[in-house]
Specification:
Layout (H helix, E strand, L loop, with lengths): L1 H11 L27 E3 L3 E3 L2 H20 L25
Antiparallel strand pairs: 1-2
Length: about 100
């Protein structure tokens, strides 16, 4: 019976969706989005007043992604002294 209560409580947990207010203000500059004017969307949950604000937000996201990609990993691979991860060279044959 206790498991059933757990399942019921999980099923009753509300799923959170973005509120309708996300279409009220520009995600980048916070300008009020006017009714009847174009709204520019990005990633489905971000509304923008102009292509410029949208492009600036995309560039910010790309910079953040690049920074996170360029950070060294916290757990570098274990290597013995002098061991190389990759070796390059040219093999020749004198036949």
């Amino acid at each position: 019976m206790e498991k059933e209560k757990g399942v019921v409580s999980l099923l009753q947990t509300p799923i959170h969706y973005p509120s309708s207010e996300f279409l009220s203000f520009c995600h980048h500059c916070n300008k009020k989005l006017e009714e009847g004017k174009d709204i520019y969307m990005y990633r489905g949950e971000r509304a923008f007043c102009s292509l410029t604000c949208r492009a600036l937000e995309i560039m910010n996201d790309e910079e953040l992604e690049e920074e996170s990609d360029n950070t060294p990993s916290k757990n570098p691979p274990n290597q013995e002294h002098g061991e190389k991860l990759f070796e390059t060279g040219i093999i020749t044959s004198n036949r």
